Amino acid sequence: MQSNQANDYSSKKLEQLKPYLSEDKDQALTTDTGVKLTNTDDSLRAGERGPTILEDFHFREKITHFDHERIPERVVHARGFGAHGYFELYESMAEYTKAKFLQNPGSKTPVFVRFSTVVGSRGSADTVRDVRGFATKFYTEDGNFDIVGNNIPVFFIQDAVKFPDLIHAVKPEPHNEIPQATTAHDTFWDFVVNTPETAHMVMWAMSDRAIPRSFRMMEGFGVNTFRFINAQGKARFVKFHWKPLLGVHSLMRDEAQKLSGKDPDFHRRDLWDAIEQGNYPEYEFGVQILEEDQEFDFDFDILDPTKIWPEELIPVKIIGKMTLNKNVDNFFAETEQVAFCPANIVPGIDFSNDPLLQGRLFSYEDTQLSRLGGPNFRQIPINRPIVPVHNNQRDGFHQMRIHTGPVSYTPNALNQNSPVTTTEEEGGFAHYTERVDGYKIRSRSQSFRDHYSQATLFWNSMSPAEKSHIVDAFHFEVGSVKNKELKQKVADMFAHVAPELGEQIAAKIGVNPPAQAEASKVTATSPALSQDNTIKTARTRKVAILIADGFCEKSVQAMMDALKAAGVTAETVGTCLAPKTGREGTMLEPDKDLATSVSLFYDAVYVPGGAEHINTLKQNADALHFIDEAMHHCKTIGASDEAGELLLMADAAAQLPALPEQTDQPWVEQGVLLVKNAKDLQPFCMEFIHQLSMHRHWERKP
Ligand code: HDE
User: At what angle do helices 484-495 and 186-193 cross, to 10 degrees?
Assistant: First the structure.
């Protein structure tokens, strides 16, 4: 092996290199056939300046492998990010299901989760307005069970046969492949106005749910109706839910769009960092269970995937918790090659006749055959079950098993009829024997025809701030549509959800007020739908502390200590990356600076005092922009002592009531905090953390 300076691993150097070391360390470089190589930097040439020679098998192998490194990206949900974890059961579900992983309280089942966007291609930005995929693979002792869900509980269409139409409409337009990863274009809205069943889902997609703050702060929903089957064979309908312990929180539209440019990896980075820091994302697992004889008790069809089962009618029973505690070792091998499928179920779980689900049961395996190159994709490590696999499936591209013996069929006597089937009592899967009568017919049930009631329920349930965000989203999305007639149709369509919604959209996008739409008869609200009612905590949030030379060390230290104790991540942001000297002479090396970060990356900003430091920041346009942008995005902003003057320079501060001259007690208004000459900064820090836990201060209108 060649030795060079880079191979000089002192123990200190090894420590620094730890994140970069792999199983290849100290191993000889070889070809794929195991031949050790003397050189991989120069191809074989006829003379030092001569042509490369075809017999250079190493050159050809290396380039050929590289040429084929990419596999087709997923047709939808191409952009995604995965993590490992485990699911722990709180209480036995034996009454409802015989699924083994839902029997013993405290039992743990390994899981792999992949979060995704739907529309964009693999390299698109994380924070676009879109539905998020939330797919979970449980590696259970009965085999793999997948919940291939979304962060929105309903879907655009009621029948899978329309899925290619929906996706063609939403993807970049085919003549010019523009625009990327967005619904803000003509073909999507053309599909919407001609497909009224989309109304409910479009309301969710225009709401804050479609621009989550973090994968760690999203709900997950199985969407489709499944069945639980217990050991006695009794079936019940079930819907699956994931509820994040950090609550459900979202970005602002402007913030999400700017983040797409400043950090297209915002969500994956957030998840990766949280897991690396030991801030493991947690989601409680909930089920809504319905007796079979309750099937027709509601004014919506429980098989219709454009409808929720309102939690106030059918409560979500929390039965366990999932914790994501390990990042992948290799993105391609795990996140890219993982293959989810709603047809992956285990004994104790079964399907319903939801027509969207029925189509999905076909689609996933079909797409994986071409995406992963053949029928053996379940042998890829991330897709393998933890239990043994025995069957007579043979050959195919990329067969990894070496089957022995001549028998690959049943029945057989030569191999004693192995592998053998298992009875239901012994754990074999038996489909639920549902009775089905009817004509073969291309038609939809009358019970699937109400497209607006739940869209109105959703609108009614929103807080004033959430409503204004929905109108803002329609403004941007439909405002980006070129065809004026189409814009008018959108305003008209959403006037059926709520006349005031249609009117507000029309006013923003410059079309006529919708023809007088009748006010909906639905006046109910569902509090569970509003993010106003979610869990609020400062835990795992990210705070920027701005520093220049002359900053007040004591304040920085007090704030850092308080944030750390509250489980908040603090980063110092310097005017540049060079160490900054505090007013008492302490040196601090900033984590980031005004070139490598922006306020978009943080939930809150703290500016400590220090006359010289504040004078420097006042003259720095990036520092002023940092504060101003955080103001616009309704984030918590704290300033102590001299820093108060800096806040006044931010444009957005104009909307705040006059900041006080003197305040030795924390002064708070709309998430802006000030303190001057306080002997003890602790109360100020505590109030800052409390304000941070509220996520955003929507009352501070941008
Ligand atoms: Fe999917 N969907 N889908 N989908 N879906 C795919 O499968 C499909 C639907 C969802 O991280 C594809 O392996 C049809 C609803 C997630 O790998 C494909 C219909 C929900 C993911 C497919 C739907 C989902 C997919 C593309 C309408 C929420 C990403 C790549 C009937 C419950 C999984 C792939 C991952 C991916 C088909 C509708 C969730 C083409 C036909 C509703 C989270 O098979």
Answer: 40
